[in-house]
Specification:
Layout: H1 19-29, H2 44-48, H3 52-64
């Protein structure tokens, strides 16, 4: 097997994978409202005024659907 000494990392989040729009739609459908400052917040906890524990639980639930 040939050894490669260079790696190209790419970030396709928000370009190829628009998860943010889908997650926001899903959150609204499940009764969560975005905070006033949430429009400019990337962190879902800040965006919806929820704890880190709740945020992680919701993201896992979202990924299973």
């Amino acid at each position: 097997m040939k050894s490669f000494d260079k790696v190209i990392l790419t970030d396709c989040d928000g370009v190829l994978l628009n998860w943010e729009y889908a997650f926001n739609t899903w959150m609204k459908r499940h009764g969560y409202e975005m905070t006033q400052a949430g429009e400019n917040a990337y962190d879902m906890g800040d965006r919806y005024g929820i704890s880190n524990v709740e945020k992680k639980r919701l993201v896992k639930f979202f990924l299973r659907e």
